[in-house]
UniProtKB/TrEMBL annotation, chain A:
It comes from the Archaea. This is DUF7479 domain-containing protein. InterPro entries: DUF7479. It comes from Methanococcoides seepicolus. Residues 98-155 form the DUF7479 domain. It holds the Pfam family DUF7479.
From TrEMBL, chain B:
It comes from Methanococcoides seepicolus. Residues 88-310 form the Radical SAM core domain. Keywords: Iron, Iron-sulfur, Metal-binding, S-adenosyl-L-methionine. InterPro entries: Aldolase_TIM, Elp3/MiaA/NifB-like_rSAM, Methyltransferase_Class_D, rSAM, rSAM_sf, Zn_ribbon_HMPTM. Pfam families: Radical_SAM, Zn_ribbon_HMPTM. GO terms for molecular function: catalytic activity; iron-sulfur cluster binding; metal ion binding. Gene3D superfamilies: Aldolase class I. The keyword Oxidoreductase does not apply. This is Radical SAM protein. SUPFAM superfamilies: Radical SAM enzymes.
């Protein structure tokens, strides 16, 4: 599998301590399993990779020649415990998240999910597939989570 | 009896350096040491070995030494203080005493409060004291102006200004608050001089306590100081001197009071009364860290537990304990817990402590700059994928007229600008509504451990421009003769 990475994206990976191989792995596994989000036009995908202490996401696009282009990568240390309130609740007017669960071909929606880190648990916005329940956190939310993570780490130190 | 380690200590009679052992018996930790001349001494240092060891496990710091020692290694620790090159720890807080005079005449008092104004150091001497800190310690430098009662000096504003001129990064004032409460002009000048924080003696939330200690009703005065600082935007740390039969029963109320005054009140620093008894048995009358924490747990109905207090970034795991807690609608959400173990930190202890001393006042966490206030935009994240995604799916959090998602069933963080209870809220709360509760244990000649003192990061500046580790500065033998404080000659020496 060929993954194109621009210089800019490459330095983003470096700055944030991501290894290219791990990002590649996440994309490869998403491509083979179909576990990914795609946007309305099928031009942007988000794949998720779970490890012990980190959840990493790759944002990438398919290219005409069958290769992919990595657009961005981000991660959070918090664990996603599940949907806030425990189960998926239907709501009257669901805002479309703009993302589709590729595997289920189902429109993913915004739902709050519980995330915990260092004994503190709080809800935060996630993108959830109503069918398989897969949860994705977006890059913007991750910025907030990162700040909260640092606060918890700093305050403990 | 199980030996934990050996310790370097001092003879409580003659202050000679002697060796001892630390051991456990019946779940308690003791130090036993022997002087060839004065015999053997056994001192209880913790009544709970489990807590003692847990604190040790959870303690992990990197250290940095001072920039430039001011004395030589000559007679060996603890006789070379100044700081000497053997000292293992940079200064995190330098204490500059600008007078021995005090206007309270307390029953419990640390400082020698007997002298008169003519003994106060003059401006040149004080300048040299600040300069000693600048030349010895690494940046940033933090100084606490202390006494006696520093506000007895009319030139205090000039002294603060001078500290800033010399280049001290953070200047805090340790005061009983009486003059600040009644003299607005004086307070304005202190503020204009650039004071960074007030360390306010605050022994209780009732006048009973103050009457007992000073014969004066002081609670309203304390409240007025906090009020003034609130208006002036100056952070306050409440400093209760704690003792049994005095205010130990009120520690929960003090914390509760403080929590109502955040963010002006940044923290509560409990200071168990220090006294040098004539025997180890007498010393057991003092309040230990563990006893204080147990009281806090009981008096806050278990909201702040013993285990929420982790070792302060101090010389050793046993020098202090700190709890950081968020305040959420009158409840506490402690962020610290010993069970979380040690945090591996890259920065050294003094630097971290300094940052936290300074960070408390600025009301934010310096490491986290820039912390932009969490906004809708950050939370409603589709928009933040703009670089990755081709189009900016506009975030419509603020105008969602049709959003009938019930807040009760799904407290959607993204359902409006003001999130409730989510991580963004958490961040905001931690910036504005948190309290640092800490305590510190001074060493006495009975519990003295060389390892603790040579790692000490709180240094008292003497008028001849030396920096003496705090516990050594206040150390006296069992007859009340000091090793350093008010001393020209050093006792316990064979020279
Ligand atoms: S306490 Fe520190 S400065 Fe004082 S003699 Fe010992 S090592 Fe030197
Ligand atoms: Zn699905
Ligand atoms: Zn002796």
């Amino acid at each position: 599998m060929t993954i194109n990475i621009s210089d800019e994206t490459n330095s983003l990976l470096k700055d944030n301590g991501f290894r290219i191989e791990e990002i590649q792995e996440i994309i490869e596994s998403a491509e083979s399993s179909g576990n990914k989000l795609k946007d309305a036009d099928g031009e942007v995908f988000i794949a998720r990779g779970d490890s012990d202490n980190l959840t990493t996401y790759a944002v990438y696009s398919p290219l005409a020649n069958g290769a992919f282009e990595l657009k961005s990568a981000y991660a959070h240390k918090m664990k996603v415990a599940g949907l806030t309130g425990g189960s998926f609740g239907e709501v009257e007017y669901d805002d479309e998240s703009g993302w589709t669960c590729h595997k289920c071909n189902e429109e993913a929606v915004d739902r709050n999910v519980d995330m915990f880190y260092l004994d503190v648990s709080r809800p935060g916005p996630g993108i959830v597939c109503p069918k398989c329940g897969d949860i994705y956190i977006t890059q913007g939310v991750t910025k907030t989570l990162k700040t909260a993570e640092s606060i918890l780490e700093e305050k403990r130190a | 009896m199980k030996q934990i380690s050996t310790v370097g200590s001092l003879c409580p009679e003659c202050l000679r350096t002697i060796e001892g052992i630390k051991f456990v018996e019946d779940g308690k930790v003791y130090i036993k040491k022997e002087c060839a001349e004065h015999g053997s001494f056994t001192t209880l240092i913790s009544k709970d070995v489990n807590h003692y060891l847990k604190m040790e496990e959870c303690f992990d710091v990197d250290r940095a030494r001072v920039k430039a020692p001011l004395t030589d290694v000559n007679k060996g620790c603890p006789y070379d203080c100044g700081i000497c090159p053997s000292h293992k720890q940079d200064t995190c807080l330098a204490i500059v005493e600008i007078t021995d005079r005090c206007d309270l005449g307390c029953t419990y008092c640390f400082a020698d409060s007997t002298s008169d104004a003519s003994n106060d150091p003059d401006m040149d001497t004080i300048r040299r004291m600040f300069e000693a800190v600048k030349s010895c310690s690494n940046e940033p430098t933090c100084v606490q102006i202390s006494g006696g009662e520093p506000t007895l000096r009319n030139d205090l504003p000039e002294i603060i200004k001078m500290a800033k001129e010399v280049g001290i990064s953070h200047v805090e004032l340790n005061t009983n608050g009486r003059r600040i409460a009644r003299d607005q002009d004086y307070f304005d000048r202190i503020k204009a001089a650039g004071i960074d924080a007030i360390y306010l003696g605050f022994d209780g939330v009732s006048d009973d306590v103050y009457l007992q200690r000073t014969g004066k009703k002081l609670f309203d005065i304390k409240a007025e100081v906090i009020n003034k600082c609130d208006k002036a935007g100056i952070g306050v740390v409440l400093v209760p001197l704690v003792a049994k039969n005095y205010n130990l029963h009120e520690v929960g109320k003090i914390i509760e009071f403080a929590s109502q005054k955040v963010p002006t009140v940044r923290g509560v620093h409990f200071q168990p009364v220090f006294y040098s008894g004539r025997s180890p048995a007498e010393m057991e009358g003092r309040t230990t860290i563990l006893e204080l924490l147990e009281e806090i747990e009981t008096q806050t109905d278990g909201q702040l537990k013993v285990e929420n207090f982790t070792p302060s970034l101090m010389p050793t795991a046993h020098c202090g304990a700190t709890c950081l807690t968020l305040i959420d609608n009158g409840n506490f959400i402690p962020l610290t817990n010993v069970s979380m173990g040690a945090v591996r930190s890259k920065s050294d202890v003094a630097n971290k402590t300094k940052k936290s001393i300074m960070g408390r006042w600025k009301g934010s966490t310096p490491d986290l700059q820039p912390v932009s206030k969490p906004s809708c935009h950050d939370l409603l994240s589709k928009a933040s994928l703009v670089n990755a995604s081709k189009s900016d799916v506009s975030s419509s959090c603020c105008e969602k007229p049709n959003n009938t998602i019930s807040i009760e069933t799904i407290p959607m963080e993204s359902s409006c600008c003001r999130s409730s209870g989510g991580w963004a809220d958490f961040i905001e709360m931690s910036m504005n509504k948190y309290l640092t509760i800490s305590t510190m244990a001074f060493q006495d000649v009975w519990s003295y451990e060389k390892e603790r003192v040579e790692n000490c990061c709180i240094h008292v500046v003497t008028q001849d421009g030396k920096l003496i580790p705090f516990c050594n500065y206040n150390l006296s033998n069992c007859n009340g003769d000091f090793l350093y404080r008010n001393k020209n000659k050093v006792i316990g020496m064979d020279d």
